[in-house]
Specification:
Layout: H1 5-24, E1 31-35, H2 39-47, H3 51-72, E2 76-83, H4 91-110, H5 112-116, E3 119-124, H6 132-145, E4 151-159, H7 161-177, H8 188-193, E5 205-208, E6 227-230, H9 240-252
Parallel strand pairs: 1-2, 1-5, 2-4, 3-4, 5-6
Helix pairs in contact: 1-9, 2-3, 3-4, 4-6
This protein binds 3-methylbut-3-enyl trihydrogen diphosphate (IPE) (2 copies) and magnesium ion.
Length: about 260
Amino acid sequence: MALPKIISNAAYSTYESQLEKEVLAGPVPGHLAIIMDGNRRYAKEVLQAEPREGHIMGRAKLEEVLGWCMDTGIKVLTVYAFSTENFNRDQEEVSFLMDLISQALRDFADDPRVHENRVRVGVLGDPSMLPESMLEAISYADERTSGYSDHHLNMAVAYGGRQEIVTAVKEIARKVKEGAMDVEDITEGTLSGHMYMSSMPDPDLVLRTSGEVRISNFLLWQMAYSELYFTDVYWPGFRYIDFLRSIRAYQQRSRRYGT
Ligand code: IPE
Ligand code: IPE
Ligand code: MG
């Protein structure tokens, strides 16, 4: 027999605070990367609504999750908001998402929490694929937060891991051609230094929602030794307890780096 809702809610919140206590007592990832997936399935299956309703809720979820990261002491949050391949969706969905992400960037730049916690808000991806309105929103967020470095929120927009590597290789090749660099001096560090987020540490934990167990061209270079965590919940339905579970799973891993 199912427990009455009031009892199950109380049990749930006791479990949540117990888990929170455990998680906060351990080391949290310095850099968390999230593949925010499942917006359209959430809209269809849970809301019985149009896909855009899922995207709107997904955007709100990101605001919530940024708060959880700041509260638990996670310094860097990188989220996959729009891939290079997502441009192949219907034009209407693409422009809706471009507007939604631009507005989210502007709202983050104006968010008092972002200023209190000194969060630098930035974007990684191929700017040549982005509309002017998005480029303006990126500049706005950059102007308003460029002085901060206590926390980072990096939004991957028009981002593709392979594309990022190709761009880095082209830049390095150009330097070699101009005589500014010797081929023999190219190291892993050289490649890392030419990635979009060259000043950030690699992600410690990469989390994907929605039940898909794949990387979909996210941070291919940077996740060589990241811990991976997959959860079945759709992104708009991702709860604080799911977040805590992912951090606890991370804390239980043994990172050996091949040794
Ligand atoms: C993630 O949700 C958001 C983007 C990729 C832009 P989806 O739109 O991929 O939703 P699903 O995975 O099809 O449910
Ligand atoms: C990955 O999700 C990209 C983002 C979350 C922005 P997709 O929904 O585009 O990936 P696939 O198609 O399931 O691999
Ligand atoms: Mg998807």
